Amino acid sequence: MITRKVAPALAAGCSVIVKPPSETPFSPIALGFLALEAGLPPNCVHIIPTNDSQASTELATNPKVKKLSFIESTGVGNLLAKAARNTMKSVSMEICGNAPFTVFEDGDIDQAVEAAMVPMDLPGYFYEPTIISEATMEMQVAHDKTFGPLATIFPICTEAESVLLANES
């Protein structure tokens, strides 16, 4: 995902600052090393792995930063967009949920499981794919982003309940 944000900026001649999630900093750090190895000048790609929210606030409010692009939860996205508004910078965001995948009672459960597992079968994961069944909206996994191959199963009774759960995830 980071390369989709970084490549256009570099192609336009801009330097970039990447503040990866503190839970998953290694791929972005490796990307920074690869940028140097590919011959990009040292001041073009900056990788700042931190869980200090002040770093995000600085990027959002600093007038020297002309564009803010991020992939974040709705709550954090709202905060960053509000912080950036006084600088009139361009803001683009991808607000993440937990990618709801709904299967109704009359659905083919085997086909649904096979379709849901395709992304998890790709090589390169460091954590075994995990399924949490009988999940509830009170669980942390219902509201927080998950960095890893995790499928959470919420029992539903109606289509309306499915839409409600999907919008709250």
Automatic annotation (TrEMBL):
List the Pfam families: Aldedh (PF00171)
Name the Gene3D superfamilies on file: Aldehyde Dehydrogenase, Chain A, domain 1 (3.40.605.10), Aldehyde Dehydrogenase, Chain A, domain 2 (3.40.309.10)
Q: Where is the Aldehyde dehydrogenase domain?
A: 1-117, 123-169
**Annotated keywords:** Oxidoreductase
Q: Which InterPro entries match?
A: Ald_DH/histidinol_DH, Ald_DH_C, Ald_DH_N, Aldehyde_DH_dom, Aldehyde_DH_Superfamily
Name the coiled-coil region(s).
none
Biological-process GO terms, alphabetical:
gamma-aminobutyric acid catabolic process
The reply to whether Phosphoprotein figures as a keyword in the UniProt entry is no
Cite the GO molecular-function annotations of the record. Answer: succinate-semialdehyde dehydrogenase (NAD+) activity
Record-given protein name: Aldehyde dehydrogenase domain-containing protein
Q: Which organism is it from?
A: Penicillium arizonense
